[in-house]
Amino acid sequence: MTYQRSYTLFKMAFILGFGVIILNWFLEIWWLLLVGIGIIFLGIKQLPFFYRCPHCKQQLDVRQGKLPHCHHCGGELDW
Fold first, then answer.
1. Where are the domains of the chain?
2. What is the pLDDT of residues 19-45, one digit of tens each?
3. Taking the model in full, what pTM does it have?
C-alpha cells in the first residue's frame, strides 16, 4: 500500500466511523457505536505501517495533512 492510499483510507475510515456513530444516536442500536469506534480504530492503526516516506521509510505525520516533502529526508512526496 502506498502512502497516498494509506492517507485516503485513514480519512475515509474517520468519516465512515463518525457517520456510523451518528447513525447510532438516531437508531439507538448500541452495537453500531462499537462498529463506528472499530472502524476509526482500524483506520488509525494502519497509519504506522503504511503512511511512510517512500524514500527513507520514516513515518509521516498525518496531523500535518498532505506534506509536499518528507520532514525527515526532504524527499518530494507526489500527491
1. 3-64
2. 999 999 999 898 999 999 999 999 999
3. 0.81
Taking Cα atoms as reference points, which of 70, 46, 47, 66 lies closest to residue 58? 70
Return the SS3 of 16.
helix
Q: What's the pLDDT score for residue 55?
A: 93
The predicted pLDDT at position 24 comes to: 93
Residue labelled with grid coordinates 524514500: 55
- Reduced to 3 states (helix: H, G, I; strand: E, B; else coil), residue 51 is coil
The values of phi and psi at residue 76, to 5°, are: -75, 135
SS3 54: coil
**In angstroms, rounded to a whole number, what is the distance separating the alpha carbons of residues 67 and 16?**
24
Q: Collapsing DSSP states into helix, strand and coil, what is residue 19?
A: helix
The rounded percent of the chain whose pLDDT value lies above 70 is 100
